[in-house]
Amino acid sequence: MSPSDEQNQLTIGIIAHIDAGKTTTTENILYQTGKIHKIGSVDDGTTEMDYLDEEKERGITIISAATTVFWKNHKINIIDTPGHIDFISEVKKSLTVIDSGILVVCGTAGVQAQTETLYNLCSEDNIPLMFFINKLDRPTSSFSRTYNSLVESFKIKFLPINLPIYNLNDQFTGVYDILIGKAFIYNFDPGNNNINKIKQNASSENDAEFFTMNIDDNFQQKYKIPDFLSFNNIFSETLAEFDESFLHEFLSSGNIDDISYEKKIELIKSLTKERKLFPVSCGSALKKIGISQLLDNITLYLPTTDEVKYTLYSASNEPIEQPNKKVAFVFKTIYEKQSGKISFLRIYNGNFNKGDKLFNPRINEWERISHIYQLHANKKTEIQTAHKGDIVGIIGFKDTQTGDTLLSDKSYIFMHKHFLTEPVITMSIEPRFVKDVEPLLNALEIISNEDNSFRFKQNQQSGLIEVSGMGELHLQVIQHRLFNEFKIETRLGNPSIAYKETITQRVSREISVSKIVKGVTNHFEIGITLEPSDENKLVILEKNIEPDYLSFFEIFSNSIFVSGPMYGYPITNLSIILDRFNLISNSVELLLLGEVTRDLFFQLYNEAKPALLEPIMKLDIVADESHFSEVISDLNAKNVDIIEMKVLPDSPKYRRIIALGRLSLFFGYSTILRNLTSGQGYFSMEFYTYQPSSI
Questions:
Q1: Mean per-residue pLDDT, 193-206
Q2: Higher-scoring residue by pLDDT: 200, 136
Q3: How far is residue 242's CA from residue 269's CA, in Å, rounded to a whole number?
Q4: Last residue of a domain, one of 444, 469, 498
């Protein structure tokens, strides 16, 4: 396959709640496709994509990592993402550049709070999804129960593609493909002569062998597929809902067996791309069962690079048609000691060559590509050209940042990708030695440029340094990184809340200004509206603003969002609308424009009834039955909003509580829960929303 043939190229992300087996799934994909020749272990810290020392020590994914594999004449760009909620910003950055995703779900635990969060994030970006029910080798797992939990949780149309196969001893042994009506047996009986031995992928050195069987009497003497008829009916009925020819066949014969394989593929792929349908695969990454079928399903049902359209916007936020020029988006930035700054790019259009100059409309500057690298986790291979759909690393950019659009000509058009994640807790941090204050600030600057959910600031009077992040684990990982990478020993203080402020009313005003600056009259009219919004944004209604003034208003709004005038906390959910900007004189001094705009903003902000907000967390708590009442009493004392309580299907002695509570009441809750349950309880929490504070 030609590397530039986007008709056979996919760019996917692999996402999951923590402990769903995502890293092991990715590891097996690398193995099955021949990318690696030995499967690593999460427990041993030897997996290919988790290469940081912290990832190896903790057994979790902390940063996203990119790679490329080939499977049956398809090139698949993969971004592997973290599962822990403290590192959700890494997931968000990855979602901005993938064309589709694989959402891994544990076949024992089922849908978790993080599963719902990930699905919602994909919905916001309109990303097609395929679900992979993993860990079906576990005795307490259940495909049917997990599938039903998906249906109940998301209220969308799922389509079972694969079903689990068990032997008569209830051991998970293979998967059944509903579309082709074949069973793929991995743990086979050598005495069974009614099986066909085949290779998973002829291009891979690492092919494991499996066997196919028809569903006949011989199969039923050795194997079973729970709820076989029920899921086959779901498959037929679901497709019949979307196509008249399928419906006619189903009503006349009770199935859709006579409809061609190609037509079924075409319909499923089309519906998946439109997010009207969500295919469901299954397997066990640990036992290497179902990974080959998952790869087949990826190439059959998920959209290729050529089939996915992207949107660009003008400086006035108007959507425009896809231009005939090179377009790329920077979704991540890292710093390496030897290489320096590396920008991670998704190529959306055109070929990018070493030495090319690209225009960055945000900074109104040209940047040059010094080196292009194909990425595989922390390994880089230099290449001369990157093609449409590729995920590559670039060295050479000086001022380009994460979130920037790059173009082959001087155009002021942008890809609007929203992935900023605001931190929810703050801690003080100090170096062990005074000599390390400046190195610490430099290191924190590097880390904040890489991680957009991390913030730091220094009080100019006291010298106190504060760091803010998504949780205690997030900041602990950064502390360890400061020691491991920068050789700086630090101490973290107790956590505090990352409050925010916003407005609660819409206000608007227009003024006329005439002032002499340096002997020249500056005369202009400006109108601004502030209104509550679902996100921070600058909306420019005035047309034909010159680039210098446009850049000024963008820089102004970004600086305003950082620190609110009422409480000094970051502003959230504010829309700044530039209703009018009319130059009566030939030009306006930017210093004067800044003073006028800031004064007008402060006046409007104070009139808009600002409010202090605090983070509300979504809690997922599991407690044993004998201590359940103590846990509920403690939660009631914390005035939480309990959303759901249920018995765990696989562990009837345990109950799960889903609740919403103020973050300020749940610092150190893991210790409290251990004491309440004599060590039998555990919990996780993730940011849910901001609400008016009670303080």
A1: 42
A2: 136
A3: 12
A4: 498
pLDDT in tens, 472-516: 888 998 999 899 889 999 999 988 888 899 999 999 999 999 999
For the chain, state the CA radius of gyration: 28
Distance CA 575, CA 333 (A): 28
Which position has the higher pLDDT, 279 or 121?
A: 279
How high is the pLDDT of residue 453? 84
Domain CATH code at residue 460: 3.30.70.870
Helices (H), 178-330: 217-220, 228-240, 244-253, 261-273, 291-301
* Tokens found for residue 319: 């959507």
Place of tokens 């089309």: 270
Task: Determine contact, residues 113/19, Cβ cutoff 8 Å.
Answer: no
Shared-domain flag, residues 209 and 107? yes
Mean per-residue pLDDT for 509-532? 93
Check whether residue 493 and residue 510 sit in a common domain: no
The order of strands in the sheet holding 172-177 is 196-199, 209-213, 182-185, 172-177, 162-167, 223-224
Q: What angle do CA 29, 371, 410 make, to 5 degrees?
A: 110
Q: Is there a single domain that holds both residue 301 and residue 328?
A: no
> Residue 419 pLDDT > 80, yes or no?
no
Residue 189, pLDDT above cutoff 60: no
Whether the CB-CB separation of 110 and 116 falls below 8 Å is answered with: no
* Averaged pLDDT, 78-93: 82
Residue 118 lies in a domain: yes
Counted domains in the chain: 5
Could you report the per-residue pLDDT of 5-20, keeping only the tens digit for each?
556 899 999 999 888 9
Within a 10 A sphere around the Cβ of 156, how many other Cβ atoms? 14
Residues 231/161, Cβ–Cβ less than 8 Å: no
- Asked if 241 and 353 sit in the same domain, the reply is no
Give backbone dihedrals phi and psi of 600, rounded to 5 degrees, phi first. Answer: -65, -40
User: Which structural domain range is residue 586 located in?
Assistant: 505-608
Q: Which residues contact 86 (CB under 8 A, 6 or more apart)?
A: 469, 470, 471, 472, 473, 474, 477
**pTM: predicted TM-score of the whole model, two decimal places:** 0.76
Indicate if 664 and 641 belong to the same structural domain: yes
How does DSSP classify residue 324?
A: S
CA distance 472 to 671: 14
Distance CA 427, CA 492 (A): 6
